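Human:
Take a look at this sequence-structure pair and walk me through the tokens.
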Amino acid sequence: MIYHVWLSRCSKLSCDKACRLICEFGSAQAVFEAGEHSLRQKIYLTPADIQALGDKNLQNAQDIIDKCAKKSIDIITFSDKRYPKRLREIHLPPVVLYIKGTLPDIDSLPVFGIVGSRKPTLDSAAFAGKMAKELTQAGMLIVSGMAQGVDSRAAEGALQSGSTIAVLGTAIDNPYPKSNWGLYRDIIKNGAVISEYPPGARTYPDSFIERNRIISGLSIGLLVVQAGKKSGSLKTARFAEDYGRYVFVSPGLPTSDDWEGSNELLRSGAFYTAGAQDILSQFDTVYNFNSIKNDERSSVCIPEGLSQQEQQVYLALTRPMRSDEIAQACGMSIEQVAGILTMMELMGIVEQTGTQTFTRK
């Protein structure tokens, strides 16, 4: 273990090169003991790489191990049998994972990621929580970044039905934001918090981007909720696409900057997602999911003869809603929704209950 920790803390050496060296030499200890000539024969290394690998002082690694022991932090290395297989297959797999809590057998579970805006609308936040709760109820294990907003709501929703895991972009003993300390403790009691950064490690802006590759790597699929044009969630989605994972998106207003990234993902082939069943149906040939209790979509009797867009609007009307709210929920323009609502009024299946507010009859 000490050699893996040493290797993971070698300055300037990428995770990819570190893991390749472990595979080439057979162990992290063999990498530690190898000379410059042997190292260069295995893979391409820059002068900075050679300099980092030339530092044979193990004291820092031993200090990290001692801190983890005192704080009940588990260490899983790239060579450990417990290391998640899906994560092992990605580009830049972490050399070491620090675990607080109890990590379930990830390889046997349908792990599913939920990420999104740090400043979501109330509807988006509620949707993230509801999806996480129902997917956990069905048997999925939700993973998020525990960031403020959608990620936190997803973790909270998952905890209502079972356990969850969160991946930090900070040191394992330093959750961010600080307001999430309570959530951090709740997740540890009912799942696990993961980081590739040891106790006391400094945080850099790129750390959160690096965190995103782990979320995607652990998951069989990813749901993006309310992503703007420059949202970090888009990077998580790109990682997921690169790893061959399914990407799901809850659509928003096409004219709103707050959903520009989400709608771009939809245009590029992500799955339109209005409910948990939209996700579960993509994996039900591989996994046996539990039935979801109180699933609003499954309990709705849809009138015959409706087009696909009319069905979307009808399903979205779980309560009296304004036309702009319906448009947001369905990923349509307000003009489209207005035309559909007019036709559905004439059909006698919806009615206005106020100015531009509609409900099912």
Notes: The mean pLDDT is 90. The radius of gyration is 23 Å. The chain has three domains: 2-101, 106-280, 300-360. Residues 122-138 form the longest helix (17 residues).
